[in-house]
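User: Sequence recovery, please. Input:
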């Protein structure tokens, strides 16, 4: 078994997760970052990162190189796979990227290598889905190499909880492989590592992290629906409840992105395969997936109650990304609100200082405007709590009516009509 000093790392998948992993690993090891997207490789070679997860200076390291050629990984012996694991339209796991990445690594896999997966999967997937691909493509025997699993915990846009500051859960298929995997991650992760007793335990730990958060947000979203019928401000209720020491301070919200709105489906998929039908988890998913329609319909109802014409009504949306202060547009639920409002004939204008205009148009067919270009409108929706919007004064907005999804304008006493959602 190789020692730490002999390790050469490959990181397969250079997105929001893989790129930070590669740059930090390069502080200790020769590291090759691989991605099938040639444009992404050229961007990184030019010391640019459109995800804004990595500072340009971190891309210019002696031990770090980028490639889209599988052959360039041949000298590596410690492979980290960090590719997307989304769900399809039926909310079942989509393993195409994971299988493709496994095939790529399998092409250059050698006896003595270690392959560690970071992508979110259901418990058992590393050994049931990924391992057979590695064996088939490489032609190696099972005892020739080792596999491990170390779930990603990076939070896009969060500079406080970065890769090195979050405890890293690690696992492997043998005690000796676990020793190596643990040493490699511990050498760069300041917060240290936690050795899970098995690969399945580590896989399960990842999916329940986000499932727990999803359910807690669903509870707050359901509370929002109930409070709305009682004509009570849900944020006032939460503020009062938070005075108890053991109350968990979750708030209502749109649950999108590549983790919280996706990971629970991996767990429920596997549970269903095993003959168990999850109830609480799927109920939470249904509530959270319905929130965009609830928001849009409350906007429509509020405008009707104020004798506003809906068709051709102009409305400005502040924010499109799935979370604040982050350019990530994947699985954003704001677009569901936009599409619902458009279905009523409303004219929707959107701005987002963090999102890529090109990506927004390519992914969702919407044209983002700069904030100062937003026209005078009949209403404004504050959809994402970007720092730029958090500092806005309601009186600076041209709209007489402001729908506040994030509770930013609570306590406002001016002439604008603030409608919390």
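Assistant: Recovered sequence (421 residues):
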């Amino acid at each position: 078994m190789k020692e730490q000093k002999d390790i050469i790392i490959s990181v397969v998948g250079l997105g929001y997760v893989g790129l930070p992993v590669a740059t930090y690993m390069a502080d200790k090891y020769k590291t090759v970052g691989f991605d099938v997207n040639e444009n992404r490789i050229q961007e990184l070679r030019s010391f640019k990162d459109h995800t804004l997860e990595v500072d340009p200076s971190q891309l210019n390291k002696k031990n770090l190189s980028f490639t889209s050629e599988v052959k360039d990984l041949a000298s590596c012996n410690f492979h980290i796979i960090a590719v997307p694991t989304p769900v399809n339209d039926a909310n079942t796991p989509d393993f195409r990227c994971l299988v493709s990445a496994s095939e790529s690594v399998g092409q250059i896999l050698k006896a003595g290598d270690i392959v560690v997966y970071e992508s979110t999967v259901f418990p058992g997937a590393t050994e049931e889905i990924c391992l057979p691909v590695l064996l088939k493509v490489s032609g190696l025997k099972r005892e020739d190499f080792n596999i491990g699993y170390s779930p990603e915990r990076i939070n896009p846009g969060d500079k406080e909880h970065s890769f090195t500051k979050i405890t890293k859960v690690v696992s492997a298929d043998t005690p000796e492989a676990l020793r190596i995997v643990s040493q490699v991650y511990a050498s760069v992760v300041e917060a240290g590592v936690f050795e899970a007793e098995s690969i399945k335990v580590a896989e399960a730990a990842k999916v329940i992290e986000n499932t727990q958060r999803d359910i807690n947000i669903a509870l707050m979203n359901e509370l929002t629906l109930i409070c709305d019928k009682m004509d009570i401000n849900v944020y006032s209720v939460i503020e009062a409840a938070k005075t108890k020491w053991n109350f968990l301070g979750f708030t209502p919200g749109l649950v999108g992105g590549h983790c919280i709105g996706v990971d629970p489906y991996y767990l429920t998929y596997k549970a269903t395969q095993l003959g168990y039908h999850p109830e609480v988890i799927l109920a939470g998913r249904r509530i959270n997936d319905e929130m965009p329609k609830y928001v849009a319909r409350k906007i429509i109802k509020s405008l009707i109650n104020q004798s506003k014409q809906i068709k051709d009504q102009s409305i400005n949306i502040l924010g499109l990304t799935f979370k604040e202060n982050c350019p990530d547009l994947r699985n954003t639920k704001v677009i569901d609100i936009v599409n619902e409002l458009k279905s009523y004939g409303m004219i929707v204008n959107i701005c987002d200082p963090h999102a890529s205009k090109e990506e927004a148009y390519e992914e969702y067919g919407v044209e983002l405007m700069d904030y100062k270009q937003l026209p005078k409108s009949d209403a404004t929706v504050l959809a994402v709590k970007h720092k730029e919007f958090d500092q806005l004064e309601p009186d600076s907005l041209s709209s007489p009516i402001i729908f506040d999804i994030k509770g930013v304008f609570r306590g406002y006493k001016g002439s604008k009509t603030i409608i919390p959602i």
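The longest strand covers residues 8-12.
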